[in-house]
What does this fold into?
Amino acid sequence: MDEETLQFYRGHAEAYAGREITSRKARLTAFLALLPPGARILELGCGAGGDTAEMLARGFDLRATDGSPEMAAVASQRLGRSVETLLFHDLDAVEAYDAVWANACLLHVPRDELADVLGLIWRALKGNGYFFASYKTGDAEGRDTLNRYYNYPSPGWLRTNYAGAGNWSSLEIESGEVIGFDNQWASMLFVVARKGR
It folds into this structure.
C-alpha cells in the first residue's frame, strides 16, 4: 500500500471514526443476502468498524482487519472486540472464507500491485465465495486533495485485473456516487465477484 496514504489513515483515525456513513448500507445488505446464515467473512479495510458492527449484528462469523494499527484500535474499542492489523499483501489464507468485504480500501492499492492482491483474495475465498470491493473510477492513478493515492480504474481495466487474479464464475460492476472524507462527490465502481469452483 502507498505509504503516504497509510500514514494519512494512521493520523486521522479518530476523525475518520467520527463520520456516520449510511450510503453503503443498502449494498452491504444486498451482499449479505447472497450468503448463508453464519457465513465466514473476511473484512479488509474495516475503518472505524461501521460495516463490521452490521455484519456482527446479523450473526456472521467475521474477521475484521485494517491496514492502520490506529484505525484497528479505534474499531476494536468501538466494537468491544479485537480488530487485526493486516496489510493486503500479507493475506495468506487459503480457501478459508465464504466472502470477502473490501469497501473503499482496495482503491488505494497501486495499479501495478492490484492483480496480485486480487489473487490473494481469490485464494482466500472458498469455491463459490463472494467478494465485494469498491473503487473511485477514472483513467489513471493519482492523488486526491488530501494526498491519498487512488488507482482510479475504468470498468474494463478492473475486469482485466480480476481475470488475471483467478477464475470468477460471475463479475458484476455497478456505478454510483458517494461523498468522501474530503467532502467531495466521487464517481464509484462497485464490484461483486463470485469465485469459480
